[in-house]
Amino acid sequence: MSWWRRLLKRGEMERHLDAELRFHFDGLVADNIRAGMSEPQARRSARLEFGGVEQVKEECRDARGTRWVEETVQDLRFAVRSLRKSPIFATTAILILALGIGGNTAMFTVIRAVLLKPLGYADPDGLFRVSIDDPIQNNRDIGFSWFHYEAIKDAKSFGGLGTFFIATENMTLSVNGEPEPLKGARISANLLSILGVQPIVGRGFRAEEDVTGGPAVAMISASLWRRRFDGDPNVTSRSMTLNATPCIIAGVLPDGFQFPVRDVDVWVPRPWEFSAIPPAVQPRTNVLIGLARLKPHFTMQQARNELMVLHRQYMSMHPELGDARQGSSMRIAPLKEQLVANVRSMLWILFGAVGFILLIACANLASLLLARSTARFREFAIRVAMGASRGRLIRHLLAESLVLGTIGGCFGLLLAKWLLGVIAHATLVNLPRSTEIRLDPIVLGFSAVLSLVTIVLFGVIPSLQISRSVLADELRKGSAGAGGGASTPVRTLPVNMRSLLVAGQIALSLVLLIGAALLIGSFARLREVDLGFHASNLLTMQIALPPARYDGPKQRAFYDELLHRVEVIPGVRSAMLARTVPMTARYSTDVAVVEQPAVKRGDRASAQLQTITPGYLRTMGIPLRRGRDFTEHDNQSAPGVVIINESFAQRFWPSYPAGQDPVGEHILAGNNPQPMEIVGIAADVRQRLDADVWPELDFPLAQTSLQTAALAVRADSDPKSLVNAIRKEVLSIDRDQTVSGIKTMDELVEGTLGQRRLTMVLLGSFAGLALVLAVCGIYGVTAYSVARRTPEFGIRSALGATQRDILRLVLRQGLAIVLVGSAIGIGAALALTRVMKSLLYHVSATDPLIFAGVSVLFGLVALLACYLPARRATRINPLEALRWE
Amino acid sequence: MTQPKSDLPQGTLDLLILKVVTLGPIHGYAIAQRIQQISRDVLQVQQGSLYPALHRLENRGLLAAEWKDSETGREAKFYRLTAKGQTELKSETESWKQLAKAVRLILESSEANG
Question: Minimal Cα–Cα distance from B28 to chain A, Å?
Fold first, then answer.
């Protein structure tokens, strides 16, 4: 009979065994009768000769070789039964485990998808991102111009160097007359082949489509293809209208292709043709980022050196251009690194934090199991007395851990799935590669291994401890000749072990608490930052006028008409149009003051470029410090005027607000040779909460052209209620014109804080969880020791110890654990919070106030956790306590 | 009933069982009796070792078992030698003989010296 059959046909095997032995027994009886015994005598004699039937059966069962499986099943069943008998313990343990494993699995999944997995391109390690560093202007990783690209694109270190527009653009797509706003990207024709991506339908861009004046052609995403073209395989023969221009569909890109960012639906060639910039200056505007594939056997350093040589040649050829400034250099970095640079430290810190949580959970579970095992000491002693071996006892406790671990792991997986859903849909955080986050076999393996490791950590240690002490005890009581056995007080070991575990939990949770407090402190500082404008009740949206339908005069007519119509919508207090609104994009130009000594083009300072309508300052709530606001008279026929911000004033008139008045002076900006008069100085406005204010230069919209504008409306109450009315006004001017990016200013501000907020909330919840677990640990170990020392306290109080004496006795023990744990925790935090530096804002990583405050608060909570059981100790009635033993 | 009992060295019982079973299908009770008879009551097999040994041999594929009617008309489990069992018996007998020879040599030589 095979092993499997023996395992599965257990009932049959047992029946046969029984029949076989009975046959033998009956044979003995019959023989005895034949030898002349009476039947009862014959039976008795046979029974004597036969010996213990059960022992024989046991040995026969052993011979089957299926024993360990049966025993394991038995152990598991027993474990489930005994866990069901203590539902509170089981629920607590499973909950703790699920939290630990769930958190870790979720974070691991995110980290794997975002940081560890290779990019979904062919040979992703050969891909590099190329950009410009300009340390003198305090600019890092900024774009270059098309001219610059022409100068470096044939670098010999690269198998190919492509380029793409630094941001995405709002484009309007019309298929069969239905306009729809989309996210569009501009890429060079060779970019797809450098990435190694093939279109699933049609073809990629051709080189002749990548020159000024080339045909209107686009590639679309697979999701757009299915949504708007029903997945038509002949989509390349159909046409669509992109930004009011008929456009050829070259091909469809595969699902999951998200370059340069996610949710892009349309790609067009000629990356420099950003519609917000006048065509004449497009090739010299620094809006391009390079993407290169390194040739085999070339190193990044070689490529950097070559790029620097080309960059220097370019600088001497075009000293007037913004990407040829003195001191600027080329930056090259692996594409993957660059892609995740913003989130890397945040993710690792969070992963570390959930790791801490898991350790705390393990320690907590271990002490929970220790306490439970100690409480079951008698049960174990009885089982040992009944013949259970130490191995069997350990197996038993392990089985309990295994059951807990498996159930906890399953719940953890569910929790992870839920958490991942939350993270993937966290719209406030722009997590790169977030579409790649999913639970796959490797992640499942990770959480299985994690569960197993956890089980070993929290299950084996206590079971070894307890079995050793049970056996030692047994030895002491039992066989006298065992030479005294273990004379060490093994039974007290679990207490020390528990103290150690609790101290560890305290240390870990203190690190998390301090980390969270540092983030919260940073966040609070950020919250106090004065934006420079009123963010509430402000609605913003983007309007991209297609160049094909709107040239200069038509643009201005549209904007005028729009503002007039929007301003009279009930509930609108004021409205304005601007190039950008704070918290979104930022454009810059180089500037010089005419009245000051002349500076070479390449050495000029740069300033943020803004274009506004006269309502801008009023609508945003920005105070005018000096001079005047723009009026309707500042138009094409009037002399050029600008408003500067105070940072600008301080940059060029260092003694501002004293000294020479900037108002009335003149400015040169970018390529425009016409000086413009400064007519006003506005207060500073922050572009990001956590970034310094830039010098800013505002032009009147009526004197410039603007293809893409932001419309902002100050509402009386809820600004979202105005969305439909505004959209209707836009459509009534031009029924093909869409608006996009509709957000309140509050949402935009939150968006810039999204990542910080997420990190803070997650780390804060982790720390809170750790605190709860650690406090439970302290409480548990103190309560346990009080329970064990009840008779002692009884004797003490019988001998005259006051309640205060006993209170002090118990608190001292608890306090010792807390102090040791806190000391380790503070030390570890001092070493570890340094890695958080990039996440902090105006808070030192070793801020003494935060360290001290958190430690003291934590100590107080810990003390309270000790105090509750200690107070119980003082209430012990000596008489009852003595009777108790 | 107070026969001098001899403890069997480890592994010997298996060899004896295999030998007894070569005579034809036989049930456990008969095996015990046969060993006792042949050894003239010197070897008495305890049920406590016989049945585990039988089951072990069966699981190792050296014996095969089937249930059929015994001489008394009751169903009993009859063991018979498999081909694998035969080979095993042969090699075990060989090594047993060698062992016995070696032990005798040593015992005799020490007698001579003593």
Answer: 7
What is the domain extent for residue A210?
A: 146-320
A741 domain-assigned: no
Number of domains in chain B: 1
* CB half-sphere exposure, A160, CA atoms < 13 A: 13
| Domain count within chain A | 5
Are A63 and B55 an interchain contact pair (Cβ–Cβ within 8 Å)?
yes
Q: Taking the C-alpha atoms of A753, A757, A760 and A761 in order, what is their torsion angle to the nearest 10 degrees?
A: 180
Dump pLDDT digits (tens) for A141-194.
889 999 999 999 999 999 999 999 988 888 888 887 778 888 999 999 999 999
Instruction: Give the predicted TM-score (pTM) of the model.
Output: 0.72
Question: What interface predicted TM-score (ipTM) does this complex get?
Answer: 0.84
| Tens digits of residue pLDDT in A244-276 | 888 999 999 998 888 888 789 999 999 988 877
* Residue A508: inside a domain: yes
pLDDT in tens, B22-77: 888 898 888 888 888 888 877 777 777 888 888 888 888 888 888 888 887 888 88
Which residue of chain B has the CA closest to A4? B59
Asked whether the beta carbons of residue A52 and residue B48 sit closer than 8 angstroms, the reply is yes
**Chain B contact for A26, CB < 8 A?**
yes
Across A629-695, where does the E strand assignment appear? 641-645, 666-669, 672-682
Q: Do A21 and B67 touch (CB under 8 A)?
A: no
CA angle, residues A558, A559, A563, in degrees to nearest 5: 120
Most B CBs within 10 A among A3, A4, A23, A25, hence the mutation to make, goes to: A23
Q: Do B72 and A19 touch (CB under 8 A)?
A: no
CB-nearest partner of A56 from B47, B58, B67: B47
Is residue A237 assigned to a domain? yes
Question: Element (H or E) spanning B58, and its range?
Answer: helix B47-59
A130 φ, ψ (degrees, to nearest 5): -120, 130
